[in-house]
Amino acid sequence: MAAAAAVRRLLRPSTSASVSNASRLLSSTSSPPPHRSPNTNSPVAFDWSDDDADNPATSPPPATAKNSELPPPYDPFSKKPAVTESSDPTNLQEIFHRMRTEGLTDYAIKMFDGLSKDGLTHEALELFAVIKDKGAMPDVVAHTAVLEAYANAGPAHWRDAVRTYDRMLASGVKPNAYTLAVLVRGLASSDRCSEAGRYLVEMLDRRMQPNVATYLSALEAYVRMEKVEEGKMLLETMKGKGFVPNEEAVCSASVKRGHVFRGVMNLLFGK
């Protein structure tokens, strides 16, 4: 109850200026980002101009958001989704327009919700403490929002999601478990199983335990793409870093039919 009350206070709308402050994270900056802590609030650049010829057709352009009202206070006990998803996740132009005009508060709520459900309440409250103390969004929210937009847009944008993550690290912004879970699931859904496995291992290297939905998405991709032996190698690497799969959780989270389910169960538990 104390955590819920704290979040309500942090998200209670008081002035439209907070939306403007949050939206500055999507503004462009020409100078290289200075060294800063993982929870800074300086502007974030998403400029693919120095990338290869396969640049994304739609990238988040620099813009200044208009003032708008904040959403109602977040209630973690509500069964309603934390954020209403876009009706068309492939319409990146619309999604980035909403980020610029409506701000990033919804994305911060979604991140808080994801961290809290994974039992990472301390990290979730630290995230909102930055908003409360400095009056602007942490950089990790802005980068993850763009990354998630690309991850949800389908296989054509998996490289854009990885580029966004790489730029996040290059900017000195530390990802959290929600960020990496979004990246792993997005790559897995695009059948990029090797890349998804790479970031699963990175989660463990960062002392983050992937939740069942995250590691299942990657292992299901290995089975779906008929790369079971590679999946076994990944699993051995993960176990060597302390990963222990939860059979009950896997059964609860999986559709208990079809060759993919059987393949994943055999991969994880030899069944």
UniProtKB/TrEMBL annotation:
The keyword Magnesium does not apply. Residues 1-90 are annotated as: Disordered. PPR repeats lie at residues 139-175, 176-210, 211-245. InterPro entries: PPR_rpt (IPR002885), PROP1-like_PPR_dom (IPR033443), TPR-like_helical_dom_sf (IPR011990). PROSITE patterns: PPR. Residues 16-30 have a biased composition (Low complexity). It comes from the Eukaryota. Residues 117-251 form the PROP1-like PPR domain. Coiled coil: none annotated. Pfam families: PPR_long. Keywords: Repeat, Transit peptide. Belongs to the PPR family. P subfamily. This is PROP1-like PPR domain-containing protein. It comes from Urochloa decumbens.
